[in-house]
Amino acid sequence: xxxxxxxxxxxxxxxxxxxxxxxxxxxxxxxxxxxxxxxxxxxxxxxxxxxxxxxxxxxxxxxxxxxxxxxxxxxxxxxxxxxxxxxxxxxxxxxxxxxxxx
Amino acid sequence: xxxxxxxxxxxxxxxxxxxxxxxxxxxxxxxxxxxxxxxxxxxxxxxxxxxxxxxxxxxxxxxxxxxxxxxxxxxxxxxxxxxxxxxxxxxxxxxxxxxxxxxxxxxxxxxxxxxxxxxxxxxxxxxxxxxxx
Lengths: 102, 133
Description:
Largest sheet of chain B: none
Distance between the termini of chain A: 63 Å
Oligomer: heterodimer
Shape of chain B: flat
């Protein structure tokens, strides 16, 4: 059984990253933008685990721990900020959040 | 043959689900597609012998971060979301730029850049022959 070439994993990681980037640049809803950021972080995780497997090095796994931790805390704080913002502005579209005051 | 088939299924489903997450109309549906996506990514980690990371992925991402997202989506109660435009006006430019970025990233995967050359043993032995007096 031939193994899966590692370039396929990296192409998958790049594809998911690019789709997340497109969603972040394009969507108006702030929650979907946030989910696109999580998608990009997952793409980086796939790439790290791929290199860790094909180079037989455990440092990829360790960096994935770090990235997952940072993503979790960033999601918590970002969503709290979004709720506070929604309480003031009553909208979830970034087009209408164009004032710094109030 | 069989590992490549499994990988092809998981890769295709992951790309398709991420497109559904990004382009979905209803934010709750996007969160559900993201849950399925995280489970497929965890299965991909199992292919790469990363069982602990697969467990961490399911527990942390699918079990905590998506909970947060779901609560916020349900708290914000976005009803007028379903009637408005989803994308900003200049989305074709963003599509072209991100596709160009993808082509650039994948073109760096050429076999000339990564890994050792096949004749590494003969290279090192020839160098030893030169250094001998």
